Known about the structure:
Transmembrane segments: 32-49, 69-88, 95-113, 119-138, 145-163, 183-202
Number of domains: 2
Coiled coil: 210-240
Keywords: Coiled coil, Membrane, Transmembrane, Transmembrane helix
Shape: rod-shaped
Number of helices: 9
Amino acid sequence: xxxxxxxxxxxxxxxxxxxxxxxxxxxxxxxxxxxxxxxxxxxxxxxxxxxxxxxxxxxxxxxxxxxxxxxxxxxxxxxxxxxxxxxxxxxxxxxxxxxxxxxxxxxxxxxxxxxxxxxxxxxxxxxxxxxxxxxxxxxxxxxxxxxxxxxxxxxxxxxxxxxxxxxxxxxxxxxxxxxxxxxxxxxxxxxxxxxxxxxxxxxxxxxxxxxxxxxxxxxxxxxxxxxxxxxxxxxxxxxxxxxxxxxxxxxxxxxxxxxxxxxxxxxxxxxxxxxxxxxxxxxxxxxxxxxxxxxxxxxxxxxxxxxxxxxxxxxxxxxx
Length: 320
């Protein structure tokens, strides 16, 4: 009994783990789908930017700014991510993109271009967008070893915004009301929290909706299986009933044969002899001769009736 309970408990635990793993796998699939969307949409957006600002890309290579060169590099990284995802290198594609994003679009331009003024807004906005990408491209329950460190690193980049901008500002032209004002940092943190909480909530709503869809799909599948099983059972029942009817039909044919041939012969002889007795009522010699033939016919009739009775009893027993 103990072993039986133990085996049942193991089965329950295994089923639970399988269900959890299935949910986690679905979560990873959603992240990969979104990463593919990012890898497809960003090259299109950046290609439009390049088309609008095409004159810049007609300049000699050594005259172009680094932030202008970054655009085709990001396009290349996105297309490479698509190829890596196609070959199931999902970890490499996402981690390469998510690490290269702040380095190429924010840190290197600030270092090489000496904190250009437009990065006072572009840097915090880009870091906030980067945190949203982390949430959307990495699974919190399935990949916590990536999700939380990347999000923490992103937050550290945000809270050190003033330090980074001031460190590489060689011209000292950073507006004091921006980096010197504590609300510049507080606003960045506030918007970081706001956008991430909104994305977290939206993901929860979407995941809940998808889970309900999957649950409904599972219920439909269960009902379908039950219906298929019912149909199979019905087919078996119909076959069994048809077989029973065929057997009963054979029995009826057999009984009809006994009635028509085996039983009717002695019955007709007895009936005929009785009629002869009526005709030769006054002739004792004829009566004696008729009686000699009547008794064997009655005996035969009795034998046939008993034989039919045995057959009927045998059929009833086999039917039970």
